[in-house]
Each structure stands twice: as structure tokens, then as C-alpha cells.
Amino acid sequence: MAMSAGPLFKFNPSVSFIVGCDTKEEVDKYWESLSKNGEVLMPLDKYPFSERYGWIQDKYGVSWQLILTKPDGENRSKIVPSFLFVKDKCGKAQEAVNFYLSVFKNSKIGNMIPYGPNQEPNKEDYIMFSDFMLEGVWFAAMDSAMEHKFNFNEAISFIVNCDDQKEIDYYWSKLSAVLESEQCGWVKDRYGISWQIIPKNMRELMSKNPEKTTQVMLGMKKIIIKDLRKVG
Fold first, then answer.
1. Does residue 148 form part of some domain?
2. Could you tell me if 20 and 93 lie in one domain?
3. Mean pLDDT across the stretch 65-88?
4. What pLDDT is stored for residue 33 in this prediction?
5. Among 143, 165, 186, which residue terminates a domain?
6. What secondary structure letter does DSSP report for 192?
7. Which domain holds residue 77?
8. What is the pTM of this model?
9. I need a labelling partner for 32 at 20 to 30 A (CA). Which of 23, 76, 108, 168 fits?
10. Picking from 66-80, 148-162, 215-229, which range would have the lowest pLDDT averaged per residue?
11. What residue ranges in 50-147 does DSSP mark as E strands?
12. Which CATH number does the domain housing residue 28 bear?
């Protein structure tokens, strides 16, 4: 889903999208398209973890990690959102993964690979790469102690579709950690990652009387389903 936020929030590499490719030719094809008028963050090359890999920020500012993946092991999604923990959040990737696993009921851990020796400024208890599944969706997380000029912001958020008010209340209580960021179902968690906690039938609730329901929704922090139904 895409929406316009005007000048308020800018994309940055703290959240990127890993694209798993079956062949080197597939990696090169995506690289050619996404690199046009973009910025190279890691050159397309051979690395210890992959025969073909590159990290690019496209012309819109969205970051992509293109990687030749091994066919062995459990299947992953074609596109996997990836969190990069930097600055004051560096070193918290494993803690964050464990936190999300505890919040979402249908979840499981995949890989958890720490940095090795002589990989300074990263420490050996920092996470070089991890992946995990939340409600059937795979995510990745990693730490980086390198100098970066960005951190998590609201430019990319993750929608949690809830069955009812009870689920909304649950995820709101678990994920909201920054009171001033609460607005229209949006919350920011303890690591700075943004979530939209909304009912599955949000479109239906908003469409019956859009002029009134929009105004009511804009005045909410947490979405209250019964209040939207009153004016719908």
C-alpha cells in the first residue's frame, strides 16, 4: 500500500526489502531496473554470504537488497521487509525479534546469525542477520554499528489487520510506546518502528458515510469500532 505523506517523512535504508532471486540473471535484471537514477548502498558483487548481492536505493528512496539465495531449506517470501538497527538501536536486533515473536501469536524464528570476530565496529553479540515469521509474513533484522545518518521513522509502517476491538486493544497495548505518535490507528513501538492497528473491515466502516467517519477517525488515537459504526 502506498500513500502520500508530503514532506513529513522520507524513506531511508533503516527499512529495506530483500528480494530473493533464483539466478544471477534475475538479480541483474532487478538491479538494472531499480538502480536507474538511484543510489548504490552496497555494490552488486560476490560476498561471503551470497554469490550475487547488491543493496540499492531506488529513485523514490525505497531500499532494496537483491540477493541470489540458496534453494535449500524452508521457503521464504519473495520479498522480505528488513529492519536495520543503527545508532542507539544498534545491538537490539535480537531483543526486538524476541519481542515481536512474543507479541504475535502465529510466529516463529528462522535464522539468528551473530557477527564473528574481527568485524569491528560490530560486536560478536550483535546480529549480522536474522529472519522470523509473524502471522505468516517473513521479516528480517540486523544490527550495524557503522556510522549511519538515518534511523527508523514513519515513512514505512506495517499494517496489523484485526478481527475485532479486542484484538485492536491487544496490539495497541503491546506495540504503542510513544504517546505523541498515536494517531488514527498508528503507533510507534519501543524501537521506533511504526504500525497501523486497524480493523479488517476498515474500508467498509469508512465508506458508509465517508464525510462523517473520516472526521471521527481523524480525531481518534486508537480506532474504536463502535464509534465509527455510530456515524457510518
1. no
2. yes
3. 88
4. 96
5. 143
6. S
7. 15-143
8. 0.92
9. 76
10. 66-80
11. 50-57, 63-68, 79-85, 107-114, 127-134, 137-143
12. 3.30.720.110
pLDDT in tens, 95-147: 999 999 999 999 999 999 999 999 999 999 999 999 999 999 999 999 999 99
> Are both 44 and 132 inside the same structural domain?
yes
105: left (phi over 0), alpha (psi -120 to 50) or beta: alpha
How many whole angstroms separate alpha carbon 182 and alpha carbon 225?
Answer: 16
* Per-residue pLDDT reduced to its tens digit, 197-213: 999 988 888 888 888 88
**What percent of the chain is modeled with pLDDT above 90?**
80
Q: In what order do the strands lie in the sheet with 50-57?
A: 39-47, 50-57, 63-68, 15-21, 79-85, 137-143, 127-134, 107-114
187 is a domain residue? yes
Distances (CA, A) of 159 to 50, 131, 198: 31, 19, 7
Residue 76 lies in a domain: yes
d(CA 110, CA 133): 7
Q: Do the Cβ atoms of 193 and 187 come closer than 8 Å?
A: no
Contact 197, 182 (CB under 8 A): no
Whichever domain contains 183, its CATH number is 3.10.180.10
CA–CA gap between residue 171 and residue 198 (Å, rounded): 10
- Tell me how far the alpha carbon of residue 14 is from its chain's centroid: 9
State how many domains the chain has. 2
Do residues 132 and 45 both lie within one domain? yes
Tell me whether residue 123 is in a domain.
yes
d(CA 168, CA 45): 44
76 phi, psi to nearest 5 deg: -115, 165
